[in-house]
Amino acid sequence: MPEELDFGPDIISVTDEEGTEHTFECLDRIETDDARYVAITPVYENAEDMLDDAGELIVLRVQEEDGETFLVPIEDEKEYDRISAAFEERLSEEYDFIDADDIVPEDNVEP
Q: Would the pLDDT of 38 be above 80?
């Protein structure tokens, strides 16, 4: 009997420093000679929460300590820019990216 293939989203759960669990969809992974990285986006149970979300792509470094895996922010701006650009290039066929500098705050939108 052929093995069933799972082509659903890659869902991960992350527990923050306060012990709150958050659910994300892992959109892509990149491994360099120096580190591993993930591009994730939040998953919401409530459709209204999803509509309120800015749709921001979250890029984090994968860090392993004492046999545990952690997702940590990328502190170095050049490293972050390089990895973010690589994710944007890889995901550009599936997603539209908007530069944060091009977003107009709702307070400044004319009716």
A: yes
* pTM (two decimals): 0.71
Residue 80: how many CB atoms within 10 A of its CB?
A: 16
Is a pLDDT exceeding 50 seen at residue 103?
no
End-to-end CA distance of the chain: 60
**How many CB atoms within 10 Å of residue 34?**
8
Exposure of 3 in the CB half-sphere (CA atoms within 13 A): 3
**What's the Cα-to-Cα distance from 82 to each of 27, 33, 44, 87, 88, rounded to whole Å?**
17, 14, 29, 9, 10
The residue with greater pLDDT, 47 or 85, is 85
| Cα–Cα distance, 1 to 3 (Å, whole number) | 7
